[in-house]
Amino acid sequence: MEFVSKNTLHVVSGRANMPLAEKVARHLGVGLGETNLSDFASGEVHCRFGESVRGADMFIIQTHGASGGMSVNDAIIEHLVMVDAARRASVKRITAVMPFYGYARQDRKADGREPITAKLVANMFAGAGADRLMSLDLHSGQIQGFFDQPFDHLVAMPVLVDYLVSNMGEELVVVSPDAGRVKVAERYANVLHADLAIVHKRRVRGVKNVVEAKEVVGEVSGRTCVLIDDMIDTGGTMVAAAEVLVERGAQSVCAAATHGVLSGPAIDRLKNSVISKLVITDTLPLPPEKQIDKIEVLTVAAIIGDAIDAVFRNTSVSEIFGGANQL
């Protein structure tokens, strides 16, 4: 008797960013599988797949961000529960797709007696049974090494570049809001055939979310400046950098970031800032109360969908980005 093995694609999603997962599934031409996620009265999460997934190649999508009544920690636990359910349901391969990787900024010990929580998150997914991780625009490249199995790093640059080419004028200057993001900003500058500038900043030691922008390296006078970063959280870095650019004679300043965390005072800061436009992607949901005219949201569903298709077919993910997805 001869058995013919057939690889089956199965895509499911957590509740943290269902609209993005639905767009990814549509791009792939498949339906989202039923997870039947629910919460017990105690707050514990329960998952039960609505059909047999034995032997499937499963991609479990969940962004690690707060949405509705769900916290970042809730999203991560829900993701882990789905991975564990898949392992116990005899899934052949489990890929945990996290458009936004939780705790990515805690990737090293910046001070004594601190955790490296980004490594802890990777350990938890390995322990739950994930065979592969996939994420977009990690805060730092070393996070890929925290997970011993394959890690696919995707970038939102194609989507953001298309927008900038279509909507920004000539005489463009790509600006890194701090020294740590220069390499990424340089890639954007090369693709856009634009000049590069850097804003030197200093964080106030011992005080969270307080940033001082100090000086600009590069010529920005009379130019349209685009600040590039992997994420915008409270907005302190972006807003402070934009103010310095205007002080140095920039004609206008816009900003582009993959992950719009936009926590705390971010929206008020943006409203009152010199930034004319903030372009982000839908790796994190943007609730109605944060939707202002200055913010433009682009989708990365096609990028994630193409990467899932490449992994499923065992073809190259890096070729999708021409090798530009390496940090």
Topology:
Elements: E1 9-13, H1 18-28, E2 38-39, E3 45-46, E4 57-61, H2 72-88, E5 93-98, H3 117-128, E6 132-136, E7 151-154, H4 157-167, E8 172-176, H5 182-192, E9 195-203, E10 211-217, E11 224-232, H6 236-247, E12 252-260, H7 266-271, E13 275-281, E14 295-298, H8 301-312
Parallel strand pairs: 1-4, 4-5, 5-6, 6-7, 8-9, 8-11, 11-12, 12-13, 13-14
Antiparallel strand pairs: 2-3, 9-10
Here the CATH topology of the largest domain equals Rossmann fold
Q: Into which percent range does the helicity of residues fall?
A: 25-40%
For the biggest β-sheet, the strand order reads 10-9-8-11-12-13-14
Q: Cα distance, first to last residue?
A: 48 Å
H/E series: EHEEEHEHEEHEHEEEHEHEEH
Instruction: Assign an overall shape.
Output: globular
Q: What fraction of residues sit in β-strands?
A: 15-25%
The CATH architecture category of the largest domain equals 3-Layer(aba) Sandwich
Average pLDDT taken over every residue: 93
Give the beta-strand count: 14
Q: From the helix content, strand content and strand pairing, which structural class follows?
A: alpha/beta
Query: What is the alpha-carbon Rg in Å?
Result: 20 Å
Runs with pLDDT <50, length 5+?
none
- How many separate domains? 2
Number of helices: 8
CATH class value of the largest domain: Alpha Beta
Largest sheet: 7 strands, mixed
Characterize the structure shown.
This protein folds into 2 domains: 9-155 and 301-321, Rossmann fold; 157-298, Rossmann fold (3-Layer(aba) Sandwich), CATH 3.40.50.2020. The radius of gyration is 20 Å and the shape is globular. It contains 8 helices and 14 strands. The model has no long low-confidence stretch (mean pLDDT 93). It has helices at 18-28, 72-88, 117-128, 157-167, 182-192, 236-247, 266-271, 301-312, and strands at residues 9-13, 38-39, 45-46, 57-61, 93-98, 132-136, 151-154, 172-176, 195-203, 211-217, 224-232, 252-260, 275-281, 295-298. With 327 residues, it is of the alpha/beta class.
